Amino acid sequence: QTALHWSAFYNRPEHVRLLIKNDSNIGIPDSEGKIPLHWAAHSQEYTAIHTVRCILEAAPTESLLNWQDYEGRTPLHFAVADGNEAVVEVLTSYEGCSVTAYDNLFRTPLHWAALLGHAKIVHLLLERNTSGTIPSDSHGATPLHYGAQSNYAVRRHTHMHTRAHTVHVFKLYQ
Questions:
Q1: Rounded to two decimals, what is the model's pTM?
Q2: DSSP character string of 56-121
Q3: Is domain 102-174 classified as CATH 1.25.40.20?
Q4: Which of 13, 14, 41, 54 is the most exposed place for a label (fewest CB within 10 A)?
């Protein structure tokens, strides 16, 4: 890992800003295939949004937003897994951030949010899912399946959205 990776990991936006200003490459992956944005997004602290923004202000590109580590996880996967709503909000506010990116288990950030019981993040990801699809993972499970295993709030959000979405798709093909 580089100094930039460590600064992002320890959530030090002032160090990240200084390193970027002095030509640290924000697109160099570490031994796990993670770039500094992965490490910045992989924090449960609310203040992680400052580090995430610092990196994205320097290079708000689709390739950084959707960079997949060796397990296929994007920075959004990490923010979702940690339940950091603020970071999820920041990442998904950038055009080109894929909310339907699959990891190596064919799970999207929505699968992980439902599995981990992050109801507000489930709702946010459903709102930001412009593709209109609710994908299945490698086991054929949808986020609704994972929501059913987790808690009522996630099941309800997902079910309500899925039903409305299904009705909408059905009307398109009548």
A1: 0.84
A2: HHH---HHHHT---TTS--HHHHHHHTT-HHHHHHHHHSTT--TT---TTS--HHHHHHHTT-HHH
A3: yes
A4: 14
